[in-house]
Amino acid sequence: MRLTPRKEEIDGVKAILESDAYTTADQMAKALIKEVADMLWMRDWFALVHLNEAGSGGLNWAPFASPIEALNTAEKIAIGGRFGTVKLYSPGALLGNALGKKGWKGFCQDPGCGHAPFLHLMDGSARGACGLASMCTCKKYIK
Ligand SMILES: [Zn+2]
Ligand SMILES: [Zn+2]
Fold this sequence. Notes:
By secondary structure, this protein is an alpha+beta fold. The protein has three domains: 7-41, no CATH class; 45-88; 97-130, no CATH class. The chain has four helices and five strands. Strands 2-1-3 form a three-stranded antiparallel β-sheet, covered by helices on one side. Strands 4-5 form a two-stranded antiparallel sheet. A hairpin with a 5-residue loop joins strand 1 and strand 2 (57-64). The radius of gyration is 20 Å and the shape is flat. The two termini are 30 Å apart.
């Protein structure tokens, strides 16, 4: 799988590697795997979908980082039939948009908020207080 690590992902891994909170390598390894899985859950992916020679559905494979990567894999396996790609939207972003994602790029950086930008009320041309007033005390969207 070809992926380009993003700055916030590198920062998240570095924070664990440089932390003194882990007493064993096993603990640190578990934390790293969970953190990276969470990061990958926040990305969109692509699936390679297959129609066999008869035109009915074959097997599907995922995840791929891009449609090109999926189709290049199809070329390598050379099983005939027709291939296409489907975009798989991030379930982490879906949940984050509904429930918030504290400390995550693209969501409000107010420590008590973490909600999506579109959940903040417009204040002139900027985003002001969080619209979920019952849940947080955010007065201004922080990028
Ligand atoms: Zn909020
Ligand atoms: Zn906020």
